[in-house]
Amino acid sequence: MKTKRTLWLSLMSAALLLGACDDPIPSIEAERFMYLSLTGAKEIPAVKKLNLESTADTVFYITMAYGGTTNYEQGDISATLAADLSLVDAFNAANNTDYRPLPEAARSFDKTELRIINGKNRSEEPIKLTIRINALDLSVDHLLPVTVRSVSGGLPLNEEMKTLYLLFQGDVDEDNGKNLWHTSGASSEWQTYAAALAYDGNPNTYWHSDAAGTLPQWFAVNMEGFKRIDGFTWVNRSDPGQEALPKHVKIETGMNGTEWTEALDIPEMDKSRVMQVLPLESTVVAKYFRITVLSTWNDASYTYVGEVDIYSGEEPEPEREIEWAKNTWEIVDYSSDWRANNDIWNVASTIDGDIGRSWHTDPTGSLPQWFIIDLKQSFMIRGFLLWNRQEDHGSEPKNIVFETSNDGTTDWRVLLDEPEMSTAYNHELDLPATNPQRGRYLRVTVKSNWSGYGFTYIAELTLY
Hints:
The chain is mostly beta strands. The chain contains four helices and 29 strands.
């Protein structure tokens, strides 16, 4: 029969000093404090970083221990362990996480039993857990619950710490760190238009391949850290008249700068001059990326790229071509305007980007009042964003009509005939076209207003 062990706490000195009573000295049962647990189980989860610079297998060690006493003569103790992936879903639900189970192909144990020999309080020969990095999708985090299945010996098992939740993460750099990027190779560079200008944060600078070269042309970037990539953003060279814009583009990613995996193959890159968003089908982790231009829109033997970046997580909003081109628009005709107070009320105020300035028609005139904008190129017009006048109210447009034409003089087609436009002035009014059409010229006609007077005003107009 096992002898019951007790841990005596001597209070003799205190008793002498205090002249204490003759009550017996209490004892504390060691079994109340002694328990077995897996080392590291208090950390939930226990994070293990994987070195992405290496493709070699990585070994981690699992041990068992007990405490609560200095008497380690507890006899031999052994425990059998096993992976239990059925616990992953429950862990995710309880902790609001989305970890993936560690695949069986990516792990192996050298044994399944831990032993603590009599006289020791921890296992001396750990279980070796080998993780095969090449068998993992490094773009996500993987969870491996390792739990104690059975114990032989005289000590109890702490139920709260019988399972070790191992979380395996690649050493991904969450910071974009674009200021540290550098070119790791390029097919060619023309004059001073280096590849580094294609990722310098300035869309107005650009990489230009050798003007006397031939396609394909490419450049590669070392991001100086492993990044999680959900997609790329792209800006073409933006100055007008330059038509050797990339058409067929291939984007590849890599871990070492020599081996590449195709991320995107785009047969026809948009000729837009604003930022485009290029999402990947699934997240990748990479330290390098390579841009290859296989053809251009004007069949030139050279090309250029304005700005390339990566993004992780939420997809950014692409810029709208119409908004970018707004600074080129021109008012080509109008019914009237009132050029008082330093011209702040002239018709050009409707497209100057300043909602504090307004087009104010002739106060002695009569409705309808109108103006025509040359958009300088043909756009598919799907709607309008309009600000009412900010500093005075009452004669805002009521019945307003938007029309488009290809030549600005004939063939006017109605995009929207809004019978009662809102008078709100503290936010942008969204007016979707009921008949979206493509056109170069836009005519805006105010047929009636809310005051009944013969004038009206509009602060700012944008299309989409």
